[in-house]
Amino acid sequence: MKKEIDTKTLIIGTLSLVFAIIFFGGFAKDLWGGIFDFSKLTGQFPEWLKTSGGTSAKGGFLFALTLVPSVMLALGFVAIFEHYGALLAASKWLSPVLKPLMGIPGNCSISLIASTQSTDAGSSTAKFLYDEGQITHHELLIFSAFQFSAGAFLTNFLASFAPLLLITDKAGAVAPVSIAMALGVIFLFKVFGANLMRLYVKKFVKENEVAV
């Protein structure tokens, strides 16, 4: 059931949505030391919390521990954005795009943007939307398929693979592909995967079926 939204609420919600996109999208990471950037605020745990090689059970536990701050921060900020109407505004402005593209409502946009930076933020905010009744079980399945493939693709690609595109061969030539093209291909196949799940959900998942 859709909520009616008045002009004042829509304006405030739109401003909140814009700030959410900037915050989770990494657009302000170089502004004022990154105090308005999610990835900068989560930071990294100190080296003394890590074990050599990261192969022990202790190392796995400590790695899992490092996920807690980012999840808590993401959920806290999404709750703030929701309070100021960001999800309502996102539903109004972005549903015409996301509904035909992947079959999910526009209020998934904040979580979608967060998932390009952090798998933890993406999954926790998607669960928040489901728990709050903002998306259905069917929409959660589709959205999860989008997030699962190439999770946090902006962060992982730019940090790990993009530098390889600058390496030259013996003739001094670099790979014949740009960073933008590579990211576009990744995003395209994430959308493709979400639509495969969309077809599966439509055919095999019953309307009244819920999460176990």
From TrEMBL:
| UniProt xrefs under Pfam families | Gate
InterPro entries named in the record:
Gate_dom
Domain spans labelled Nucleoside transporter/FeoB GTPase Gate: 65-161
Mark the transmembrane ranges: 9-28, 61-81, 140-167, 173-193
> Keywords, A to Z?
Membrane, Transmembrane, Transmembrane helix
- Superkingdom, natural source: Bacteria
Record-given protein name:
Nucleoside transporter/FeoB GTPase Gate domain-containing protein
Organism equals Rodentibacter mrazii
